[in-house]
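Hi there,

I know you've been waiting on this one. I reran it after we fixed the sequence typo, so this is the corrected version. Both the input and the resulting structure follow.
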Amino acid sequence: MITFTLINRNANRQRYLCTQDGVISSPPVPADGFATLSSATLVGNALAGPLRTIVRATIDGIGAVWAAGNVPAHTQAQARAILNSEDPTNAVLTNQLVPHAILGTQGRAAPTSVRWTVDANVDGGGNPVVEVRSDVGIAATAILDIEVQTASLGA
């Protein structure tokens, strides 16, 4: 199981310690190496500034690109655009007024053989979330960064 501990934050970044307990359930379950940093956690930890605009996208909207109140339902592609600056079709990051972040993980200490990955998605309510995966069977830690890549405050 992976757990998250907020270790640093400012208006442009949230940094979490990700801890993999190394336990493999019997029988193994996907949650052994997977965890979601919820929208409620992201919003609750956000200070005033660009990152707060990004993580509150469903609540407040981001201009005409991401409507407030989840109408229509938001997609993983939209979450990837605002949380990981990933928008190959330029459907979301249509101008410099759309704030966006980048996600990153870095193994923290031995064992360094444990692989970590991070992705953006939406929960059942269409809210942006962050998903973290790791190898299982070895206790390990990593740093997760969610960092704004634009100085914009949003449209």
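Quick highlight: The chain has four helices and seven strands.

Best,
R. S.
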